[in-house]
Design a protein that fits this description.
It is built from four helices and eight strands; from the N terminus they run E-H-E-H-E-E-E-H-E-E-E-H. By secondary structure, it is an alpha/beta fold. The chain has one domain: 2,3-Dihydroxybiphenyl 1,2-Dioxygenase, domain 1.
């Protein structure tokens, strides 16, 4: 018996935030929206997927953004994604060095922190 993987990460969004979440996760990050099951859709929110990553945005009554707690999404080409994010008005803040990764942070439209990470082979590659 053991944990196999994380199935999804849920981020809180304010009531009525679904259109902004869709623009961010689909247009800026390039994820695909997946339909919530009907019995769950009645509570609002929206779900997104890309590769093995799944993000659920759930409506929270007294919404407060998560600024320290965060999901870290593994990406295949961080520089290209940063360009796409900037074209969509999403600022990127490079992260502190971490062996084996090129990384940094973005904020969703609601102020939730999201870390983006790309695996790299060398320190020189991480710094480029």
């Amino acid at each position: 018996m053991g944990i196999l993987a994380i199935d999804h990460v849920q981020l809180a969004i304010p009531h009525g935030g679904e259109p902004m979440a869709r623009a961010f996760f689909v247009d800026a990050l390039g994820m695909e929206e997946v339909a919530k099951p009907a019995h769950l859709a009645v509570s609002g929110g929206c779900w997104f997927t890309s590769g093995a990553a799944e993000v659920h945005c759930g409506v929270e009554r007294d919404f407060t953004p998560a600024q320290r707690a965060h999901p870290a999404l593994l990406v295949d080409d961080l520089p290209s994604l940063v360009t796409r994010l900037e074209e969509n008005g999403v600022p990127f803040a490079p992260g502190k060095p971490l062996d084996g990764y090129r990384r940094g942070d973005i904020m969703d439209p609601f102020g939730n922190r999201i870390e983006l990470m790309q695996k790299v082979e060398s320190v020189a590659e991480a710094e480029s």
